[in-house]
Automatic annotation (TrEMBL):
Transmembrane segments: none annotated. InterPro entries: OxRdtase_Mopterin-bd_dom, OxRdtase_Mopterin-bd_sf. CDD domains: arch_bact_SO_family_Moco. It comes from the Bacteria. Residues 22-166 form the Oxidoreductase molybdopterin-binding domain. It holds the Pfam family Oxidored_molyb. This is Sulfite oxidase.
Amino acid sequence: MERIPPGQIVTERFPILTYGEEPEVAPGEWRFSLSGLVEVPLTLTYQDLLALPQVEVVRDFHCVTRWSRLDVAWKGVRVRDLLEKARPKPEAVAALVHSYGGYTTNLLLEDLLREDVLLAHTLFGKPLPPERGGPVRLLVPHLYAWKSAKWVRGITLLDHLELGFWERMGYHWRGDPWREERFQEGPIPAASLRFRSKKT
Ligand SMILES: Nc1nc2c(c(=O)[nH]1)N[C@H]1C(S)=C(S)[C@@H](COP(=O)(O)O)O[C@H]1N2
Ligand SMILES: [Mo]
C-alpha cells in the first residue's frame, strides 16, 4: 500500500494549525468527560489520565490543506479503554468531540474505537505543548487531522450525526484521507449511519 494518501505532500516541518485563539488550559484545571448515550458517564482529571494504561503510537499526520508529516510519536490513553468503562448504549453510533475554546468535530463511534485513537498528552517524549493542544488532545490518525481535536474536553455519544465546526463549514462528514474525503459533495447519505449501527 502507498504510504502517502492521494493529493498530499510530505513536509519535514510540522505546521501548527489553530483556528481562532489558543485556549489556556493548565493540567491541574483540565477535565475530560465522556457523556451522552453511555451507561456510565465519566469525568477524568489529568492525574486520572496518567494513572490509566498508557500506549505509544507512531503515526503519519495528514492535514486536509495537503501537508503530511510522517512518523509523529504520541503517547496517551486509548479512547477505546474509556469507552469500555463508560459502556456506550446500543443506539450510540456517532460522537461530537468538544474542545476548550469552542472547537468541535464529529466522529463515528466505530472510528473512536480504533486502537490508535488516543487522548494524547505526550508528543515526541515531551508533554504536549500548549500550541499542540496541551495538556491533552485527541489523536485520530486514520482521518484528516482536523479530527484530532486539540485541548479536548469532552466526547458526547449520539444516536445521530451532529456536525462539528469544519464539517458545518463544508468539510466532509467523515474525512478519510485515503478516499480524499476533503469536502462534502452532495448530501450526507442518511444510510451511512444507520448501516454502521451494531444494533439493527
Ligand atoms: N481545538 C482545535 N483543534 C484542532 C484545530 C483547531 O483549530 N482547534 N485544528 C485542526 C487542524 S485543521 C489540524 S491540521 C490539526 C493541527 O494540529 P497541529 O497544530 O498540532 O499541527 O489540529 C486540528 N485540531
Ligand atoms: Mo488541518
